[in-house]
Amino acid sequence: MKELESILAELTQKVKTATDSNELNAIRVEYLGKKGSISLLTAKIGELPQEEKKTFGAALNQVKNQAMELLEEKRKEMEEKALNEKLSQENIDVTLPGTMIPSGAPNILEKIIEEVEEVFMSMGYDVVDGPEIEEDKYNFELLNIPKGHPARDAQDTFYIEDEKILLRSQTSPVQARTMLAAGGNTPIRMICPGKTYRRDADDATHSHQFMQIEGLLVDKDISLSDLKGTFDVIAKRLFGEDVETRFRPSYYQFTEPSVETDISCFVCKGSGCPLCKHTGWITVSGAGMVHPNVLRNCGYDPKVWSGFAFGFGAERLAMLKYGIHDIRTFYQTDLRESSTFDRKDV
């Protein structure tokens, strides 16, 4: 916490003394870049005692937001100063008509992913990345999907080399890699957002590429109630505090038991509407307790360790939250589509 205070004080002083945009950008990279001082502190969350992770995560997010605000205020101050200097030196015909230039909007998928990341980071989770070109071993075998299983069918998977190298069909391989790297004796809290690929005909609700946000928690004495509590937190943050959640039995190869996770319809409040197909509930993700075989394959003793895993589709969340009816909207560059989602909406 003292290091956070010191970094913020140091950044504040540098921003105050910055004289041009190049210097300001260098400060941004130094503190908020991928290897910046604030960004590097995220990795330290996993080293903290369990009871301190949530507090430190929240404080880290606050410092990050303050840093961004300081930089933005300074940028506006510089731009205003430069404009005033230019105006004082030039004559402008204020009767000339202005030119309207169409502009885009923030990427909605990135916005959803950032929201989910912030929620889980505040709960002590790490954000982990992995390769999009993956080995069969990590994409299928370690996840309890044996050879011959329908999920391996070439109709569903983009194989690159002899059915050994492929474009990942899910972000679950990142979970397997993380467990193997942990050595089977360390608790894990992580989410892994990223692009995935499957052989699918593109239409209003399907795409051959889409963004997944998967998560994993492995520790001792973890139960389905821990998963339910975690799902409650993310559902309320994304769709409102009055949203209710429920589990329904399901089946996935890498979890046992498996569940479908539903939220109460935030449009009709449960009375029934076209969005929830008049059921009052909307399915948003799949989840479950990590299958003992998966734990064992990745070096964890299922008699000692347990955990839960979950997966969201970023497009699915965005379509629900922003009322988008065609998944292809996310991958088009038509400003007539994206202009609907201006900065105040997202």
Describe what this molecule looks like in 3D.
- The protein is 40% helix and 20% strand.
- The chain has helices at 2-17, 21-32, 37-41, 50-89, 108-122, 136-139, 172-182, 224-239, 292-297, 314-322, 335-338, and strands at residues 126-127, 133-135, 159-161, 165-167, 188-197, 209-219, 245-252, 255-264, 281-290, 306-313.
- A seven-stranded mixed beta sheet has the order 1-5-6-10-9-8-7, sandwiched between helices.
- A hairpin with a 3-residue loop joins strand 3 (159-161) and strand 4 (165-167).
- The chain is globular.
- The two termini are 31 Å apart.
- The mean pLDDT is 86.
Quick overview of this protein structure:
The chain is an alpha+beta fold.
Keywords:
346 residues, alpha+beta, 2 domains, 10 strands, 40% helix
Query: Sheet with the most strands?
Result: 7 strands, mixed
CATH class of the largest domain: Alpha Beta
For the residues shown, what is the average pLDDT? 86
Widest sheet, order of strands:
1-5-6-10-9-8-7
Q: Roughly how many Å is the radius of gyration?
A: 23 Å
CATH fold-level assignment of the largest domain: BirA Bifunctional Protein, domain 2
H/I helix tally: 11
Which outline best applies?
A: globular
CATH-wise, what's the superfamily of the largest domain? Answer: Bira Bifunctional Protein, Domain 2
- Tally of domains: 2
Class of secondary structure makeup = alpha+beta
Stretches where pLDDT is under 50 for at least 5 consecutive residues are none
Count all strands and give the number. 10
Query: In which range does the helix fraction lie?
Result: 25-40%
The assigned CATH architecture of the largest domain is 2-Layer Sandwich
Strand content: 15-25%
Distance between the termini: 31 Å
Q: What letter string, H or E per element, gives the SSE order?
A: HHHHHEEHEEHEEHEEEHEHH
